[in-house]
Design goal:
Elements (H helix, E strand, L loop, with lengths): L2 H13 L16 H4 L1 H12 L4 E5 L8 E7 L2 E7 L4 E5 L13 E4 L3 E2 L6 E2 L5 E3 L18 E7 L2 E5 L7 H4 L3 H7 L5 E11 L3 H8 L6 H4 L1 H4 L8 E4 L3 E7 L16 E10 L3 E7 L1 E11 L2 E11 L4 H30 L14 H21 L5
Antiparallel strand pairs: 1-10, 2-3, 2-5, 3-4, 4-9, 6-7, 7-8, 9-10, 11-17, 12-13, 13-14, 14-15, 15-16, 16-17
Helix pairs in contact: 3-10
The structure holds FE2/S2 (inorganic) cluster (FES) and fe (ii) ion (FE2).
Amino acid sequence: MSLSTDFSGLRERVEHFDPERPLESSETPPSEWYTDTRLYELERESVFGRSWQYVGLTEWIAEVGEYFATDLGQDPILVVRAADEIVALSNVCRHRGGPLVRSGRGKVSSFSCLYHGWNYALDGKLRKAPEFEGVCDFDAKRVHLPRMRVASLGPFLFVCWSDETPDLEESLPGLAEHIGGLRLDHLVHSERRVYAVDCNWKVFVDNYLDGGYHVPVMHPDLSRSIDYAGYHCSLRDGWNLQLSPLRAAQADGAADSADVRHGEAAHYIWAWPNWMFNAYEDVLDINWVRPLGVDRCEIVFDYFFAADAKKSFIEESLRVAEQVQEEDREISEAVQRGLVSSRYDVGRYSVRRENGDHQFHQLLARALRAGIVRREGGTS
Ligand code: FES
Ligand SMILES: [Fe+2]
């Protein structure tokens, strides 16, 4: 099969979902969106290469030379505080692809490649390439680690590969104000945990954005602490907010998720394409859905609690979060198997519950269509 034949089939499957069709009459995207490696490759460029990606917290790099390293899909990157700016760089040496730093956090005055010792300044410029005299057409002064744009949203750091993507505030208008209004400044980062899930990254996002539809069925314990009838999702430009009124803990004294999920309402925020923000009173977790392949992803959780939270409260809260995560992992992996089945292709949306999923799929469809047009060299 020639590449172009291969590619035209993909275009047809991308266009099968019409983002202009209203929720009530729309079908969901076809299952190949979740199982086809060519579509996954298209997403790497048109979704993850062109959106703002959460990576961590500004406080991790408070001093000059402090850095943290992480992976954006299959791109190892590092984020460092240089003299007067935060810089995000590819953590892949220009010589032979070695790493500048191992994963995790640290502090350096410059980066020395762990393979043959090329040395880079904090802003990514090559300073020294040992034993490289006599190499033709090689100007060390022109060698630079690929650099990403960096922006912050409150304490959260985001990066973006593309220069064409609008600024973070323009991409997600009103999100910073909304989060600022939640008054969560008293919360401190407690820890990061990473959960592997054998499903396409979108299965996990879909599960998150179903407006609570799966909660009574999949999360019986969590379900007792939220008021399902009042749970609703409001759409914004590039993000959405699922608001769920909370119930008080049961008076019978039995352990209950409501013991660690206080406040008037849970605020579940999703921002295009793969960032989630879950806030209760005195509890916050950030979820970053990282694709690792067409049928594998990992969910990075950053947990935050009040500075004076009791150890027992934190432990119980983490237990509840992990129970919910385990329930979501199990159903997401089962859904991935369902999507591979030859007996399933497209579904429908609940108008009452699944407007958030529909918004996600509309944004996705537009990004994929634009990616196809770019691949075809500007023709539509
Ligand atoms: S790969 Fe970095 S110095 Fe060789
Ligand atoms: Fe869930």
